[in-house]
Design a protein that fits this description.
five-stranded mixed sheet, elongated, binds 3'-deoxy-guanosine-5'-triphosphate, binds magnesium ion
Length: 316
């Protein structure tokens, strides 16, 4: 089994390996050029249990959001340089892994400013002077919205039966990893796996037993992969793994180990133990691999060959 490697920078967009983290809304950036107000806000928020980063102006806040995406940004309107509404527009343009809730604070209370503030991408608007109880209550309302949004995002990104990434999020990460591998001239490999004679398991033992086998295969797959590998349920009993920083030869070695490991796994179902084998197609990036889809297609062709030449094998 490979030692877990360090997280690669693709992880800013999607949780690794389909593992979903619990939802906690607690990271806030407070941007205000008035030191006193900013410190008071930070004290209130810390007291309410939030983890607060302070920015003295808009560009500092933007830089912080880029480095580590917050859940919520509270920004003053008038600041030197990048002002509140512009900060909101800039944050909305960042490719962030989740929706960031934006709250503008200002002493401008004419309705036309409220409109301009919200039009800039802010979710809420508070007029100074700010009261602690109201701010905290509004943030709790924000957390309800963010939690709902994150739950939907998790559902869309993962497969309900196995908890692995869905095919769609696999392609999102693939296009990122493909570009990164090309840019940095680093290896990248893809493996397509398909369980052998899976239909028989369903036919003989029933669909629920088939589901158990799929879950065990998915768990085994996750356990055999590195943290930086991207593991997805591609379709019914077909899985896809993207292996960054891995040559085709290394990927074939991994695939052989996984194939043996799955085949040796005794799967407990009602009153018996089952085993299942799989066929795996592996492909690395070649000079003429021009698109991410082509990489998957190369692995798919190899998988087809593995099936045609007798199953329970790895072909590259
Ligand atoms: P091969 O070795 O050629 O891959 O044979 P196979 O029987 O595995 O392939 P085939 O494509 O004929 O059958 C795949 C089966 O997987 C058919 C389908 O009913 C079953 N399947 C797909 N999704 C699920 C699922 O979520 N749960 C269960 N239990 N079965 C599923
Ligand atoms: Mg100000
Ligand atoms: Mg199959
Ligand atoms: Mg299949
Ligand atoms: Mg090949």
């Amino acid at each position: 089994k490979d030692a877990p490697s360090g997280q690669t920078d693709n992880m800013s967009t999607v949780a690794p390996s389909g593992v979903t983290a619990p939802i906690h809304i607690r990271n806030i950036i407070v941007a205000d050029d008035d030191d006193l107000i900013r410190r008071i806000l930070a004290r209130w928020l810390t007291r309410a249990g939030y983890c607060v980063r302070e920015a003295a102006n808009g560009s500092e806040a933007l830089q912080m959001a880029r480095e580590e995406p917050p859940d919520i940004v509270i920004t003053d309107w008038e600041m030197p340089g990048v002002e509140g509404p512009q900060l909101c527009r800039e944050i909305r343009r960042l490719p962030l892994p989740h929706y960031v809730y934006l709250l503008i604070l200002t002493s401008r209370n004419d309705p036309k400013w409220v409109v301009e503030g919200l039009e800039s991408g802010a979710d809420d608007f508070l007029s100074k002077p700010i009261r602690e109880a109201e701010l905290v209550a509004r943030l709790r309302a924000a957390a309800r919205i963010l939690e709902g949004e994150r739950k939907l995002q998790q559902l869309a990104r993962t497969d309900a039966l196995t908890g692995l990434l869905s095919q769609r999020s696999f392609y999102d990460i693939l296009s990122y990893e493909f570009q990164r591998a090309r840019r940095t001239n680093r290896p990248l490999s893809c493996a397509m796996l398909d369980l052998d004679f899976f239909k028989r398991i369903n036919d003989v033992y029933g669909h629920p037993v088939g589901d158990v086998v799929l879950k065990v295969a998915a768990d085994t797959l996750l356990r055999s992969c590195r943290h930086s590998d991207v593991v997805a349920r591609y379709g019914g009993e077909e899985f896809c793994v993207l292996l960054p920083e891995t040559t085709e030869e290394q990927a074939v070695n991994w695939a052989e180990r996984f194939r043996e490991m799955l085949r040796a796994t005794q799967i407990d179902v009602v009153d018996k133990k089952l085993t299942v084998s799989c066929s795996i197609g592996v492909s690395g990036l070649y000079e003429d691999t021009l698109t991410p889809e082509q990489l998957v297609d190369q692995a798919d062709q190899a998988l087809l060959c593995a099936k045609r030449t007798g199953r329970d094998r790895v072909v590259s």
